[in-house]
Amino acid sequence: MNMDPYFSFQWHITDNCDQRCKHCYIYSGGHPCIESMTWDQLESAFYNCLDFAEVYHRTPYFYLTGGDPILHPDFWRLLELLHEHDLSFTILGNPFHLNDQVCRELKWFGCEKYQLSLDGLRETHDWFRKSGSFDCTLEKVGCIKRAGIRSVIMTTVSKTNLMEVPGIIDEAVKAGVDVFAFSRYVPSGGDLDAGMTPQEYRDLLAVCDRKYKEYKAAGCKTYFNRKDHLWTLYAYENGEFQIPADAKPGMIYGGCNCGNCHITILPTGDIYACRRVPESKVGNIFEDRLADVWVTSMESYREYDKFSKCSRCKLLAWCRGCPAVAKGTNGSFYAEDPQCWKSID
What we know:
ten-stranded mixed β-sheet; 10 helices; 10 strands; 15% strand
């Protein structure tokens, strides 16, 4: 297995949030108790992660999120701890508490990227999240950029907002966003239509690919991150990706990071192989040594020969679609990705 030197910890420090998004995993099941780590728990989790990185010779990278992490009462104290250890980080949060001063302070503590969300044009996005969210999100891109932090816009795509994605790209570019990407909605019992056909999704990739290339040709500075692993299949079919001649059998070179270089930690301390797979709990960071969990409970997410379709595909080592979407749709982490259009001979 090809193990990236960086290891990402998606760390949900609180469930507290200003929004109740229709595709949120926290609130999709109703109205749960709002959890937040205490300061002692934050410290314990942090040093458990550093221990893991030392054991496996990895460079830790933290994605601080929630809820909205900035609402945690010890948010700035946690940033001081990261700064003391010379660790840069990314924040996945909301726009509502950002201003120029806050963003300058985030930059000083080591924030490299701040990710916001656009899940439709104004009416659709505000339906997903809350009234005024669309305009506030685009406005705060400027605060982030003026502080020297890279601004990221992420879109969660479902059949509900499928046709608006090209327009979202235009709005992101107009706002001067540094990075744009989208990923697919994982069915969780909410109000969204997850029933995109493989052809509908491939058509979306084709439209976005043309738009990305047109913007690049025009000198656009936005980086279009082809985050969804089905982009690899699309590029392979177009001849823009070729399987390396020196690729070694059994090695994993790309695709889903689950089981490879990523875990999620929830405010309860529960460790998940993937946040988007509710059944993927593998331990608890307050009770278990993460370095041990990685070679025990996590092994069940590295059984690549179990993929019902991908294991028979020549792109296994680079793609594998999205196992979370497969699990949410077909009931198994190793099931067929419902939007994969490739026929397996």
